[in-house]
Design a protein that fits this description.
By secondary structure, the chain is of the alpha/beta class. It has helices at about 20-30, 70-80, 95-105, 135-145, 155-165, 185-200, 220-230, 265-275, 290-295, 310-315, 330-340, 355-360, 370, 395-465, 470-475, 475-485, and strands at about 10-15, 40-45, 50-55, 60-65, 85-90, 110-115, 150-155, 170-175, 205-215, 235-245, 250-255, 255-260, 280, 300-305, 320-325, 365-370. It is built from 16 helices and 16 strands. GO terms for molecular function: glycosyltransferase activity.
């Protein structure tokens, strides 16, 4: 607990199961040293809530019932923890989390952070990357969101979307916090990078282009695959600091590397490790903020599609250049060349986690627990149980480490397989040589047997001559002939 945090006032973050940027944003708020609130996180699924006490790092599973028992189970947990007042911070306008939020707070107010375009529908985008709002969804949302006192948006772009479609709710722009990391790559990671470079025949004097992040189908994965076919491997090379849907593993081929999982604090060091000249973001669903852009910290220029918060931030802070979203893949190299030829003088802006926390909490409106609770439940009626202690912030490091260890192990397995094939080939060669020697020896043995047979036949023939009558009769004549000579 930080010095300025009170055990009596808490904030409850209510979310759908999340990953990526939303999870990172919540983690930053929950673990911020500047927070005045004791943090709790309620992750909602259809059958069960996971209620997380971030201070004690304890998880409680609370079943969702048709009546109000689940609601009071949550509030009872807060009372048992001596919480007297509660602020509500929602993180989704769709799904079970939003329904749970509205059911939990009753007539009380709350704050929302918009992380995406889901205020416009479950899937407000089609293949053309442009908004196709669900008007029925928007009308339902307007009726249900009237108790929201503030919507926090991480970019001007997303604020304009809300002001256009939900104009009656107050919106505030507050970028997500990203702090400059002060870390160096460990020896294991450096060896991992060196191995990938070796496998990809990497040349540090080539132009090196990178992509950063999880390049899913909504982040331009298909465009990336098409563009890679146009890469001139004689003069250029590409590294994906992240992964694509085809494979989450690290891999390397000629002038192309997929680094695999990484932690966002490593990005700057990885850019240096691969000697990256420029980072490309590919056309996909318009970004509402983009942590990956912030993690680059204006270290190298970026090239982004001219849509969403990416284009807004790049233009405002001079972080690189934009290109038309309809640019075909084989024309992208022209934009890369022009961007690298333009002097790079960024005006990068960011805020720290503590500043973001203080500004976020300034929007909170605390409600006494007693004003929320309608009925008091006994401890026996609370359907919660203590779960394992988990530190969420270690997950990315562990994933990144496991991916690298898996790559090294897989390379070792491949080397063993190759060595085994070589050994088998050598054994087969030796077997062939031994077979030839065996056949040669077998031939010699047969020759010896044949010679022995001929020898025995010759001896028998000589003996037959010597034992014949004519040989014995002519013996005196042969002796006389020899004597005369």
């Amino acid at each position: 607990m930080t010095d300025n945090m009170s055990i009596h006032q808490a904030v409850l973050h209510i979310v759908n199961p999340v990953r990526g940027g939303t999870q990172r944003y919540i983690d930053d708020l929950v673990n911020s040293k500047a927070s005045r609130y004791r943090p709790y996180v309620l992750t909602v699924t259809k059958c069960q809530c996971v209620f997380y006490d971030a201070q004690n790092k304890q998880y409680h599973g609370i079943k969702l019932y048709q009546d109000k028992q689940w609601r009071f189970a949550i509030l009872r947990s807060l009372i048992d923890a001596s919480v007297q007042s509660l602020a509500i911070h929602g993180h989704s306008f769709v799904g079970d989390a939003f329904d749970c939020l509205l059911a939990l707070i009753g007539d009380h107010t709350f704050v929302m952070t918009a992380h995406d375009h889901c205020c416009l529908g479950q899937q407000p985008f089609e293949a053309d990357y442009y908004l196709h709002p669900d008007e029925a969804h928007i009308q339902r949302l307007k009726k249900r969101i009237h108790r929201c006192q503030t919507i926090i948006t991480p970019s001007n772009y997303l604020q304009q979307v809300f002001q256009q479609y939900i104009p009656n709710i107050k919106t505030e722009v507050l970028p997500h916090a990203v702090e400059l990391p002060q870390i160096q790559l460990d020896d294991e990671t450096l060896a991992f990078i060196q191995k990938l470079k070796q496998d990809a025949q990497w040349k540090d004097n080539k132009r090196t282009i990178a992509a950063v992040g999880a390049i899913g189908t909504d982040k331009g994965a298909q465009y990336l695959q098409t563009w890679l076919q146009t890469l001139n491997t004689e003069t250029e090379q590409f590294v994906c600091i992240g992964f694509t849907p085809e494979t989450y593993k690290a891999k390397a081929e000629l002038a192309k590397i997929q680094h695999g999982c990484y932690h966002h604090d490593e990005v700057l060091a990885l850019l240096d490790g691969y000697h990256v000249d420029i980072v490309i973001f590919f056309p996909g669903v318009p970004e509402s903020f983009c942590y990956a852009l912030s993690d680059i910290h204006a270290h190298v220029p970026v090239l982004v599609p001219d849509i969403g918060a990416l284009a807004e931030r790049v233009k405002k802070q001079h972080l690189g250049a934009t290109y038309p979203v309809k640019t075909v893949a084989n024309e992208l190299q022209h934009h890369v060349y022009n961007t690298l030829q333009t002097p790079f003088i960024p005006q990068y802006e960011s805020i720290g986690i503590e500043e973001m926390t203080i500004k976020t909490e300034s929007f909170y409106h605390e409600h006494p627990i007693e004003s929320i609770i309608e009925t008091t439940l006994s401890a026996e009626e609370m359907q919660a149980h203590l779960s394992d202690h988990i530190d969420e912030r270690l997950v990315k490091w562990e994933m990144a480490t496991l991916v690298r260890q898996n790559y090294v192990l897989s390379q070792g397995v491949e080397q063993l397989k190759h060595q085994r094939e070589v050994d088998i080939a050598e054994l087969k060669q030796q077997q062939g040589q031994l077979q030839e020697q065996y056949q040669y020896i077998k031939t010699l043995i047969q020759d010896v047997k044949d010679w022995k047979t001929h020898h025995e036949e010759a001896i028998q023939m000589i003996q037959a001559y010597e034992n014949s009558l004519s040989w014995r009769v002519t013996k005196p004549l042969r002796w006389l002939k020899k004597w005369i000579r």
